Amino acid sequence: MIELWNALPVVIQILIKIIAIVLPLLGMVAYYTLAERKVIGYIQVRIGPNRVGWRGSLQPIADAVKLMMKEIVIPTKADKVLFLLAPMIAIAPALAAWAVFPFDEGLVLADINAGLLYLLALTSLGVYGIIIAGWASNSKYALLGAMRSAAQIVAYEIAMGFALVGVLVAAGSLNLGAIVAAQEGNLLTWFWLPLLPLFGVYLISGIAETNRAPFDVAEGESEIVAGFHVEYSGMAFAVFFLAEYANMILISALSALLFMGGWLSPFPQAWIEGIAILGDGFHWLLLKTFFFMFVFLWLRATFPRYRYDQIMRLGWKVFIPITIVWILVVALAVLAELPPWWSA
Amino acid sequence: MGFEKFLFYVFATITLVAAGMVITRRNPVHAVLYLVLAFISSAALWILLEAEFLGIVLVLVYVGAVMVLFLFVVMMLDVDIATLRAGFIRYLPIGALIAVVLALEIFLIVGPANFGLQQFPAPAPAAPGVSNTEELGLLLYTLYVYPFEIAAVILLVAIVAAIRLTLRRRSDTKYMDPAQQVRVKKGPDRIRIVKMPSERAAVPAVAASAAPQESTE
Amino acid sequence: MPFDAANLFPILPEIAILVTASVVLVLDLYLKEKDKDINHTLTLIGLLVAIGLTGAVGGGDARVVFDGNVVRDGLTDLLRGAILVVSLLAFVYARPWLKDRGLFVGEFYVLGLFAILGMLIMVSANSFLTIYLGLELQALSLYALVAFDRDSKKGAEAAMKYFVLGALGSGMLLYGVSMIYGATGSIEFGPVAQAVAEQGMDNKVLVFGVVFLVIGVGFKFGAVPFHMWVPDIYEGAPTPAVLLLGSAPKIAAFALAIRMLVDGLEAIQPDWQGMLLILAVLSMGLGNLVAIAQTNIKRMLAYSTISHVGFIFLGLLAGSAQGYASAMFYAIVYAVMSTGAFGILLILSRKGFDAENLDDLKGLNDRDSWYAAMMALVMFSMAGVPPTVGFMAKLLVLESVVRIDLVWLALVAVAFSIIGAFYYLRVVKVIYFDKPDPDMPVLTTSGGVRFAMSLNGLSLLALGLFPATLLSWCQSVFV
Questions:
Q1: Where are the alpha helices (DSSP H) in C73-188?
Q2: NCBIfam families in the record, alphabetically (chain A) (predicted)?
């Protein structure tokens, strides 16, 4: 079996790996939409979708079929090429970012040294899809949405980048695998504790970067109809939808990886001697990711939308100062070899 | 031709075509988008040169932040290309002459004769364990710490200058301060109970009209 | 490698300026409108401290620190001192003007201090990288200062021109530097000088680089034919900004030329000598001739700057220690003169009125004879009339040119300075022999301004009578 695998050309091997990552991801995205409707439904004391399949379990499939059947309407005077290119630009970085994501020790498509930087660079590209969509639609609501989104993402990207600088200082590496390895130990040695302010900033900035409630002013359906994708329909719209949810999953998985120890088990090694299921493994990563994905939905069901100027204030005047100060604190802690995180 | 060489030519072609498009497109938004493409493909070229840190930072900083703001501004502007190009033909001959002379000089000097592999042999590829980022960081914070700090001061000046030149309080706009708004607390900030003496004069009239109705019900 | 704190001693003046700028920047946020004078006081204190530190760390053998990026030698000490003193005067003159126009804000001081910091970095640079960064720091601050009066359309236009042409000049310079790096494999002046001495003129890349370098230096000095920005900016920018960018930056530009051309490329001096010669002759000619036709005094002073740059180049192109020393003397003296001239313009301005035209100087003698005398001193000095220091400066430069057997060049320079004397003396005539407009209000200035202007004007006379001290300092730098 191994020989057969090694005999394949490298390009084919990589392609197979990509498919092995992307297909489950798209499946997750589909069922995440169902989970969202169900979770929010229960939070609001409703049942949520329950007609297609057992308790609505086939709803995402039905939605997908419906969207595929619909016509893609291109507005008059829209920039046709860019209009169709925008959703693809939106989804490409959301998928490409997974290339450096380690699922377990050594289980990664491209184990590069500057993994964290790569992620940051790619997540910063996602905004192009939104801006281009907003401009190419030739609609004022779309343009307003795009403008809001651009300003918001640029603001929060800085805070997010600084939060990641804190992680980088704490772990002493840009390699994602090495960052997880640096958190080895138990629940309390993970980075969420020493980097608590950065963790908070990262999570909230992550929500803002993905344009999710309560930071969804780019869509803002009560103010600017649907924002940047108001003119989109059918598959073109579905791709934006996919990109948004893929980004949410990515941010959740990264939060798990960078601050919650990734695939590491929360229990100290001594307690779980012999119980394989409680040891380190992919299932822990999945569990943590699910938790953060749930937080995304929870927040949406709980908070009303932020006003635009308040979003800007939060990003520039609150988060950025917090991160800068905490980077200094972390750097000092690392220099002082503060136990239990950085004891030599 | 090796795979790397093939990739080099692919990205080099994309960079050149995109750069040409930047200066020939009539629509400024298209021009900016081509510039983005040029940046991305030059980042790829840098990565081919084993400068992965610089390549990724180029994408992160220029494409991810600077060009977004560019696009932001360009989309809002109503640029009239016709007036911009009004003097174009008139200045074309002299501009073209200078460009041609400069390009010729540069080709003569910056060519294989002076910068070929003989004068500058290809550096040995870095060992697999070498981290580009770490090496750059070490250099920046030891050998070049003084220029690095000056660069930081230049950025500070840019911030101060930009704010000085653009920030102005207009007297005719109404501002609200979100910082003050979020500090509002339950209680005295939100609601103020004002005690007022009831107005005597009105009372008899109301009482007179209200009292009979109540009695009938 | 561990960081040696001793590295920090030679740059203490820079650190003092940086700290002052940062303190003013932050403090300004909390100052009430009526307390803004604190910014001014703090700036002056910072400059005085920096002058003191320059003296304290100065003297002794040249010392290279920060891994070859910084050097502190005689040139550094003297030019640092000159820049700081001239800037100190500039800030004193600028205050009343700023107050009258509602521009008395912390940013003026912050940007001014950062510009000074850039100049200090330039005079102590020991590598192309450091000198370029210092230049950019200075230039960026000055661009912003030119546009400082946001409601002035002329100011915005001037800033735009300054920015575009300044960026072009920097681009040229940087391109030249990259060529020199390609030819010599270093950006530090010492190794570059060594490599250049070995290769000489044979290396085409080197020559190519030097051409761009000289063009860049020409842009920064405002020498003909790279002078296009100078008159428009002098005319359009607010006068305090002109005061700041017309005085001390010339000293810094001189340091730029000395560091790059002499410290780095002295071995190919014959090569850049020819280029500087062309720039010098054109600058003296065009500057002096066009200045005659100006009625706007700021514009006239701009063209006069161009002609003075020509004279500084005369000293540089001589290529001898004596020539460099005389060019240095000239640059310092010019900065003092120019500060005085623009200082007088600031004194003559008042709320709602900017002294810009020759007519605005009419009958200055009847209004305030002391300032009239000071302005006359400045003009005599610029014209090169003995016994003012301007005469000494011109004489020294000409002597160095004659010594390398370029007598014709000296004659050309003398001819142009005689032409130039016309428009300087015309100013003196206007001051003393024309009657002032009857509705001109009385000149009121604070004691500090009067003291600074007296110091400024009289120093021109004193230096002219006793040039030995400054001259010997200049000469001791180049031995």
A1: 74-100, 106-123, 128-146, 153-184
A2: PRK06076.1-2
Three-state SS sequence of C25-74: HHHHHHCCHHHCHHHHHHHHHHHHHHHHHHHHHCCCCCEEECCCCEEECH
- Domain extent listing, chain A: 1-68, 70-336
- For B52-68, the pLDDT digits (tens) are 888 888 888 888 888 88
Q: Give yes or no for residue C47 having a pLDDT over 90.
A: yes
Question: Using an 8 Å Cβ cutoff, are C16 and C47 in contact?
Answer: no
User: What is the overall mean pLDDT for chain C?
Assistant: 89
Pull the structure tokens for residue B137: 């960081």
Nearest chain C residue (CA) to B155: C137
Q: Are C147 and C103 in contact (CB under 8 A)?
A: no
End-to-end Cα separation, chain A, in angstroms: 43
DSSP codes of every residue in B117-149: TTTSPPPPPPPTT--HHHHHHHHHHTTTHHHHH
How sure is the predictor about B214, in pLDDT bands with cuts at 50, 70 and 90? very low
Which residues, in sequence order, are bridge partners of residue C63? C72
B139: contact with C, CB 8 A cutoff: no
C89: nearest Cα among C335, C284, C319: C335
pTM of the model: 0.87
Could you report how far apart the first and last alpha carbons of chain C are, in Å? Answer: 35
What is the rounded distance in angstroms from the CA atom of residue A110 to the CA atom of residue A124?
A: 20
The phi, psi pair for C64, rounded to 5°, reads: -100, 125
Contact C133 B151 (CB under 8 A): yes
Are the CB atoms for B1 and B38 separated by under 8 Å? no
What pLDDT, on the 0 to 100 scale, is given for residue B108? 81
> Helix, strand or coil for residue C357?
strand
Using a CB–CB cut-off of 8 Å, the residues of B that contact A are 29, 33, 36, 52-53, 56-57, 59-60, 63-65, 68-69, 71-72, 75-76, 131-133, 176, 178-179, 181-182
CA–CA dist B28, B82 (Å, integer): 13
Q: What is the pLDDT of residues C141-166, one digit of tens each?
A: 999 999 888 888 888 899 999 999 99
Q: Tell me the shortest Cα–Cα distance from A61 to chain B, in angstroms.
A: 34
Identify any residues that bridge with C125 across adjacent strands, giving them in sequence order.
C70
B154 to C140: CB separation less than 8 angstroms, yes or no: yes
Report the distance separating Cα C298 and Cα C289, nearest Å. 16
Contact between A255 and A180 (Cβ < 8 Å): no
Write phi, then psi, for A137 (nearest 5 degrees).
-70, -20
C356 to each of A202, C147, C335, C359, how far by Cα in Å? 56, 18, 20, 8
Q: Taking the C-alpha atoms of B148, B152, B153 and B157 in order, what is their torsion angle to the nearest 10 degrees? A: 140
C167–chain B nearest CA distance, Å: 14
Given a contact cutoff of 8 angstroms between Cβ atoms, the answer to whether C374 and C451 are in contact is: no
Identify the bridge partners of residue C64 per DSSP, sorted by sequence position.
Answer: C71
Among partner residues C107, C134, C208, which is closest to B164 by beta-carbon distance?
C107
User: What is the spatial distance between Cα B59 and Cα B51, in angstroms, rounded to a whole number?
Assistant: 13
- Residue C473's CB is within 10 A of a number of other CB atoms, namely 18
Q: Do B53 and A117 touch (CB under 8 A)?
A: yes
Q: Are strands C70-72 and C63-65 parallel, antiparallel or unpaired?
A: antiparallel
Question: A286-300, B199-213, C3-17: which has the minimum mean pLDDT?
Answer: B199-213
* Residue B155 pLDDT exceeds 90: yes
Tell me, what's the ipTM? Answer: 0.91
Closest in B64, B75, B132 to A125, CB measured:
B64
C453 Cβ partners below 8 Å, 6+ apart?
Answer: C93, C340, C343, C344, C347, C371, C374
Q: How far is A144 from chain B (nearest CA, A)?
A: 10
Against chain A, the chains showing at least 3 CB pairs within 8 Å are B
Q: Provide the token pair at B64.
A: 């991810």
Tokens of A263: 């695939």
Q: For residue C75, what are its two tokens? A: 């040139």
